[in-house]
Each structure stands twice: as C-alpha cells, then as structure tokens.
Amino acid sequence: SEAGDATALRQAAHALKGAAANVGAAALADCCEAVEISAQRTSAQHPPEVQQAVELLQRVAQATVPALKVP
User: Fold this and answer.
1) Nearest to 14 by CA among 39, 28, 33, 27
2) Which is nearest to 32 in space by CA: 8, 55, 16, 47?
3) Residue 25 region, left (φ>0) first, then alpha (ψ -120 to 50), else beta?
4) What is the band of 62 on the pLDDT scale with cuts at 50, 70, 90?
5) Rounded distance between C-alpha atoms, residue 15 and residue 71, angstroms
6) What contacts 60, CB < 8 A, 6 or more positions away?
7) Which of 21, 24, 31 shows the shortest CA–CA distance to 59?
8) Does residue 43 or residue 29 have the better pLDDT?
9) Rg of the Cα trace of the chain?
10) What are the tens digits of pLDDT across the range 8-22?
11) Which spans in 23-69 are helix H?
12) pTM above 0.85, yes or no
C-alpha cells in the first residue's frame, strides 16, 4: 500500500539519518531528514516532493560513501 511504502521509507530514512550522524556525515543526515519529513507528510497529491528528496539523498550518498572508506 502507498501508506505502507511511505512508512517504510520514513523508517529507513530515519535509521540512515542516525548512522550518518554517527559518522559525521552531516549533509547525508540532512538529506535523510528531508526524506523522512517528506515521507511522513506525503499523500497521493505530493509524490514529486518525496521523489526529489530521494533523488537528492541518492546523489549525496554516492558522494559521501567513498569519503567514508578507509584507504
């Protein structure tokens, strides 16, 4: 269901936000928070807001992960 998908997305974003904050990845944590908020208030009328937040999160995650790897 759409409500179940939004709940799962919100929970995943919340968990990733905490992990990102724990390793000092502030930009990633901020993007996770945006996804979490968007998913929490989403309805059938606002899927573009959620999609935009998820796309930004993907870009920031792709830039962050390599910086976290130990050489």
Assistant:
1) 33
2) 16
3) beta
4) very high
5) 26
6) 27, 28, 31
7) 31
8) 29
9) 13
10) 899 999 999 999 999
11) 26-41, 47-68
12) no
Phi, psi for residue 10 in degrees, rounded to 5? -60, -45
Question: Residue 7: which pLDDT band, with cuts at 50, 70 and 90?
Answer: confident
Question: What's the CA gap between 46 and 53, in Å, rounded?
Answer: 12
Token pair belonging to 65: 């992960």
Q: Which amino acid is at 15?
A: A
Looking at residue 10, its amino acid is R
Q: Which residue has 């709940």 as its token pair?
A: 7
Rounded CA gap, 16 and 10, in Å? 10
Length of the chain in terms of residues written: 71
DSSP 69: S
